[in-house]
């Protein structure tokens, strides 16, 4: 199931193209520490059905560092990051981010939070309202449009964060352990919701997790990262499951992909740090 690391036909411009990325941090002693060393990966541009690419690896391997570099939140030492062939230079509206911690404006209603980006872009109020209500309906929160964030559960707050990101129609959605703080049942519900919403939105997603089951359930393609300093070790294509509901996790194909990933991670001797939630 492991594939060549690009998975691209010649001549196509990928949605995301990372080549020979190097990132280092300065530690407390003032020493330079390599977090990412020569990482390359590409995520294909698939109009009509956005690709969901997962970065999977043990805690501390550098997933968030790659994520932040793609988001433009940190400056790599060297290497290139292209989105639709254009180099990333700092943060930009072409990328939308969802993090594990919920960030919303406490004094704004759910709808006003979702509309906020459109307001900054000068979109007229009536259009903002219509678009935010449609987006909230997609994430199952239409009835909570006028509620304040403090009235919502953790899963609902994360749905607001997803709606607020997707309404801006980013070319690339970046999600860093977005469901990591949720209980298992809510987490599974959110995984199914994100697949439903993305199927309608045509977004390409880069999704960071250390949960193998979550990776297999969500991904079209999984990049398995090695220990720090990280580089991609394997690219694993995940078969399209006909249905994505709780039963799919019990299917032979699902188990086969999980076992394949476990074997890969075993071979890297990192399984102990990776969550396996079967
Ligand atoms: N600001 C920083 N200063 C120094 N070292 C850092 C900094 N941020 C990250 N690192 C180090 O870089 C390495 C990669 O960290 P990163 O957060 O990218 O890993 P991760 O795979 O996302 O981990 P986790 O799954 O635990 O979030 C780690 O060894 C970490 O200690």
Automatic annotation (TrEMBL):
<protein>
    <submittedName>
        <fullName>ABC transporter ATP-binding protein</fullName>
    </submittedName>
</protein>
<dbReference type="InterPro" id="IPR003439">
    <property type="entry name" value="ABC_transporter-like_ATP-bd"/>
</dbReference>
<keyword id="KW-0067">ATP-binding</keyword>
<dbReference type="InterPro" id="IPR003593">
    <property type="entry name" value="AAA+_ATPase"/>
</dbReference>
<keyword id="KW-0813">Transport</keyword>
<dbReference type="InterPro" id="IPR050166">
    <property type="entry name" value="ABC_transporter_ATP-bind"/>
</dbReference>
<feature type="domain" description="ABC transporter">
    <location>
        <begin position="16"/>
        <end position="252"/>
    </location>
</feature>
<dbReference type="InterPro" id="IPR027417">
    <property type="entry name" value="P-loop_NTPase"/>
</dbReference>
<dbReference type="Pfam" id="PF00005">
    <property type="entry name" value="ABC_tran"/>
</dbReference>
<dbReference type="GO" id="GO:0005524">
    <property type="term" value="F:ATP binding"/>
</dbReference>
<keyword id="KW-0547">Nucleotide-binding</keyword>
<dbReference type="InterPro" id="IPR017871">
    <property type="entry name" value="ABC_transporter-like_CS"/>
</dbReference>
């Amino acid at each position: 199931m492991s594939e060549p690391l690009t998975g691209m036909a010649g001549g196509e411009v990928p949605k995301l193209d990372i080549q020979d990325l190097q990132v280092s941090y300065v530690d407390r002693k003032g020493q330079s520490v390599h977090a990412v060393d020569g990482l390359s990966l590409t995520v294909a541009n698939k109009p009509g059905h956005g690709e969901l690419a997962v970065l999977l690896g043990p805690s501390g391997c550098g997933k968030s560092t790659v994520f932040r570099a793609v988001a433009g939140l940190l400056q790599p030492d060297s290497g290139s990051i292209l989105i639709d062939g254009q180099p990333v230079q700092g943060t930009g509206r072409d990328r939308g981010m969802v993090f594990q911690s919920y960030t919303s404006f406490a004094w704004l209603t759910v709808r006003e939070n979702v509309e906020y980006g459109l307001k900054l872009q000068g979109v007229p109020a009536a259009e903002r309202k219509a678009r935010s209500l449609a987006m909230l309906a997609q994430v199952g929160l239409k009835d909570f449009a006028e509620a304040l964030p403090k009235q919502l559960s953790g899963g609902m707050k994360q749905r607001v964060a997803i709606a607020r990101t997707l309404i801006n129609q980013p070319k690339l959605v970046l999600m860093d352990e977005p469901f990591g703080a949720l209980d298992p049942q809510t987490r599974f519900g959110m995984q199914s919701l994100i697949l439903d919403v993305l199927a309608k939105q045509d977004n390409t997603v880069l999704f960071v997790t250390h949960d193998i089951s979550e990776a297999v359930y969500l991904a079209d393609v999984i990049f398995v990262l090695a220990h720090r300093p990280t580089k991609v070790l394997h690219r694993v294509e995940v078969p399209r499951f006909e249905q994505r509901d709780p039963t799919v996790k019990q299917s032979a194909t699902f188990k086969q992909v999980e076992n394949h990933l476990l074997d890969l991670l075993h071979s890297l001797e990192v399984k102990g740090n990776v969550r396996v939630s079967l």
